[in-house]
UniProtKB/TrEMBL annotation:
A Pfam entry, by short name: Abhydrolase_6
One GO molecular-function entry: hydrolase activity
Superkingdom, taxonomy of origin: Bacteria
Protein name: Alpha/beta hydrolase
Keywords: Hydrolase
Ranges where the AB hydrolase-1 domain occurs: 35-281
PANTHER family per record: ALPHA/BETA-HYDROLASES SUPERFAMILY PROTEIN, ALPHA_BETA-HYDROLASES SUPERFAMILY PROTEIN
Alphabetical list of Gene3D superfamilies matching this protein: alpha/beta hydrolase (3.40.50.1820)
Family matches, as InterPro entries: AB_hydrolase_1 (IPR000073), AB_hydrolase_fold (IPR029058)
């Protein structure tokens, strides 16, 4: 990838490593305890939604972030994406960054949080803490793909599906999504945010991963993995989240005792971007706390 082709998603330039013959964009800043940021999954997803935690946490931690395959500055191959691909990728990142003597903290959002849970359950000795932002996978987006999902996927792979994708990712559609689902305060739906999300939707190959998400192929049931975890876990929820409403937190609390829950006011799905100061104020003490299980 050349510099001119890169999306300006974070204040540092990405480096790339090859995974399954594709290029994964990685970003790093700061020193100290390692922290890995994982973004959510949607039609316009990228590490851009993690820019506030990236900049603020890098003042005290060694912060790593990535664009998942199919998004941001990473490769966007013509794959039929499945949840296991992202679980395996996040596990590879955990193994790449963490060690048993210096395990990493993982902060992940929405469906990305579900994948992070399963990956952490596979390699718990490499993960010290989990921060899950409006996570899915228990009671939401947890139904295994069936023949209906594959039928929808085939439809979305057709020329009609491409037209639908372009309609879904116009600036007007992005504004509606951000206003109704991502941010509680419409004033936060700025021109910069809209334009960045729009540009990431218009990159070559941007269509392939989102249609797998829309068809249900990326669903991930984490009920058993979450219940088995012993890694200290903090759930962060926006009080005004609509697409992943606050009531869903009860699914996680019932699955496992000892989980910490924080609700941040005047925030929706992208609470880490909408209320970054309140988010960091809650997350930082958790990251530096005692790591005993």
């Amino acid at each position: 990838m050349t510099y001119k082709s890169l999306l300006p998603l974070l204040p540092v330039q990405p480096t790339f490593f090859t995974w399954r013959d594709e290029e994964v964009a990685m970003y790093q800043a700061g020193t100290g305890q390692p922290v890995l940021l994982i973004h959510s999954i949607n039609a316009a997803a990228s590490v851009f939604e993690m820019r506030e935690p990236f900049q603020r946490l890098s003042q005290h931690f060694q912060v790593h972030a990535c664009d998942l395959l199919g998004y941001g500055n990473s490769s966007r191959p013509q794959w039929r994406y499945r949840a296991t691909i992202y679980v395996d990728l996040i596990q590879a990142l955990i193994e790449r960054i963490g060690t048993p003597t210096a395990p990493i903290a993982v902060i992940a959002s929405s469906l990305g949080a579900a994948y992070a849970v399963v990956a952490a359950e596979h390699r718990p000795e490499l993960v010290s803490r989990l921060v899950l932002i409006c996570p899915t996978g228990i009671g939401q987006l947890d139904r295994s793909p069936d023949i209906g999902a594959y039928t929808i996927y085939q439809y979305l792979r057709s020329p009609i599906g491409r037209i639908l994708y372009r309609l879904l990712t116009t600036r007007t559609s992005i504004r509606l999504f951000l206003t109704r689902q991502a941010y509680a305060n419409p004033a936060n739906v700025t021109r910069e945010r809209i334009e960045t999300y729009y540009r990431t939707c218009r990159q070559p190959g941007a269509y392939y991963a989102p249609i797998c998400f829309l068809s249900g192929l990326l669903n991930c049931n984490i009920a058993q993995a979450f219940a088995r975890l012993t890694i200290p876990t903090l759930l962060v929820w926006g009080s005004d989240a609509t697409i992943s409403p606050l009531r869903l937190v009860s699914n996680f609390v019932r699955s496992r005792t000892g989980v910490k829950v924080v609700t941040i006011a005047q925030a929706s799905l992208l609470v880490q971007d909408e209320q970054p100061e309140a988010f960091i104020a809650q997350v930082t003490p958790f990251l530096v706390g005692n790591t005993s299980r």
